[in-house]
Write a structure and sequence with these properties.
Helix 1 crosses helix 5, helix 1 runs antiparallel to helix 6 and helix 4 packs across helix 6. The protein has 305 residues and is α/β, with parallel strands linked by helices. It is built from six helices and five strands. The two termini are 40 Å apart.
């Protein structure tokens, strides 16, 4: 019985150490998600104003631009998946990967070839394990993304959509990321970044796409769009990176809280089992003492006769 008690004590010690780790990770994730939320809120005004500027130029110009003109029969598309570099976040990564897989199958069923771009080691590992080729990938900044990271991602994506499909370009650019709704709710979503749907862009900017004011552009509307659209794509990717980072930290906090609670329950169960084993051990020792005393008494009585 003593050996069983030692096993329970050893497990309680191990689970207690694990509980301390998960509690610390929960506190760290809680502090990081607040910072990530602030970054999302800080980037929103810039994104809104930039969206309005793109809408004004695109709707006020007579010339069609390659980044705003939809291809009649698109044959190639690019999908950008935002995952995380680290795990321990519940279903955060799996939900985003599943959404990307659904979008990929949908595009392929519509006759498009799909190039996959991935941010985060978890997403890269998913495709590498299945031996599926990636067009490009990025790692190392998913917990705390900066605007420079968004620019680094956007540059090759804009370049590939500006090319002809015969030269390895794509007709559409889609993004899959996790939208932060609340501390308890994060949803994997997908959106088409390019070519721009002016009605959708105007809706996002909070302005109806019914008024088409007249503008004079210098040097030209196309040059203005050449300057604005990359910034628009960068801001959208940056916002998506921030949303994903906030979602990941919230998912980690929730997962670590659940792990901490489970560790506490396990410690309570093990403590009850340890107490029962200790009580059984004490009972056995008392029985042995009583039995020994009775045997000694009987032996003494026999010798007196």
């Amino acid at each position: 019985m003593g050996a069983q008690l030692r096993v329970y004590k050893r497990r309680i010690k191990s689970v207690t150490a694990t509980k301390k780790i998960t509690k610390a990770m929960e506190m760290i994730a809680a502090s990081r998600v607040v910072k990530a939320q602030r970054k999302v809120q800080a980037s929103t005004p810039y994104a809104i104003e930039l969206t309005r500027a793109v809408t004004a130029v695109a709707t006020g110009a007579n010339d069609k631009h390659s980044l705003t003109t939809e291809v009649e029969n698109p044959t190639r598309a690019a999908v950008l998946l935002l995952s995380s570099d680290r795990g321990l976040a519940g279903a955060f990564n799996s939900n985003a990967i599943k959404a990307a897989e659904r979008l990929t199958k949908k595009l392929e069923s519509e006759g498009r070839e799909v190039d996959i771009y991935v941010v985060g080691r978890r997403g890269i590992a998913h495709y590498n394990f299945r031996e599926r080729k990636l067009a490009d990938s990025w790692t190392g900044f998913t917990d705390q993304p900066e605007y420079a990271d968004a620019k680094k991602i956007a540059a090759p994506l804009i370049e590939t959509i500006e090319k002809n499909t015969a030269d390895g370009g794509v007709d559409e650019l889609h993004i899959v990321y996790t939208e932060f709704i609340s501390m308890m709710t994060q949803t994997a979503v997908e959106a088409r970044l390019l070519p721009l749907s002016l009605d959708e862009v105007a809706k996002e900017a909070g302005e109806p796409n019914t008024l088409r004011p007249l503008y004079d552009f210098e040097p030209s509307a196309e040059d203005v769009l050449d300057a604005l659209l990359p910034r628009y794509v960068e801001s959208r990717i940056y916002n998506a990176l921030l949303q994903s980072a906030a979602s990941k930290h919230a998912a980690t906090r929730r997962a670590m809280k659940s792990a901490t609670d489970n560790a506490g329950d396990l410690i309570n169960n093990l403590s009850r089992l340890a107490n029962a084993a200790r009580q059984a051990e004490i009972t056995q020792e008392i029985s042995e003492i009583v039995g020994g005393t009775a045997a000694l008494a009987d032996a003494t009585a026999g010798s007196d006769k």
